[in-house]
Amino acid sequence: MFIFLLKYTKGIEAVDRVLEEHTKFLDENYANGNFICSGRRKPRTGGVILCKATGYEAAKNITEADPFVIEDVAEYEIIEFEVSKYAEAFKTLIK
Predict the structure, then answer these.
(1) DSSP E strands: which ranges in 9-63?
(2) CB-facing half-sphere around the CA of 84: CA atoms within 13 A
(3) Which among 14, 64, 79, 80 is placed 20 to 30 Å from 56, CA to CA?
(4) What is the pLDDT of residues 18-36, one digit of tens each?
(5) What's this model's pTM, rounded to 2 decimal places?
(6) DSSP 34
């Protein structure tokens, strides 16, 4: 399991210009089962994504396909962790 921490590297106006394409990127990754949840950081300095990728390289490849990265308006920190405990309702999302 991976936590993606996004940090904006440009102003909000630049981020907003790419937001529609970034949203499509999110939708595609929800549809193919990669993403579990996501959202903006407060204050709006970036975002957070919980990702179920097959390994670190797969996770890195996902981040590199984000229009935010391609357009150089955000950078990712990738945190890998092993799920050892979870709420019962979460069970189907991590299997």
Answers:
(1) 35-40, 46-51
(2) 3
(3) 14
(4) 999 999 999 999 999 999 9
(5) 0.94
(6) -
